[in-house]
Model the fold of this input.
Amino acid sequence: MASHSQAFFYRYLKKSQTEKFVGEVAYHFDEESQHYLCDVIVFSPYRGQGFGDQGLKLLIQAATVNQLTTLFDHLAPGNPAVSLFLKNGFTIENETTEGTLVKRVL
Done:
């Protein structure tokens, strides 16, 4: 189990050529679900350019270094990011009308 100092991770995503911020990634321990939940946010003008993929890989790497065993994310119904998570080794844990829960065993 990760220590308290490893219970969360947060980084900005930047476009390397311009140093412009394009989004952010994070994970945190959610007391209610007892899971580490991740967030991948890419600002709309920068979607489809690989920033989400880079950010998700960064989260997976940080979670592995911090000795987490699983990461989860809950995606809104119809969110096209499901394919990004599946491409990065997540599986669909649960799918309802309220959204899709994805899981990655590390």
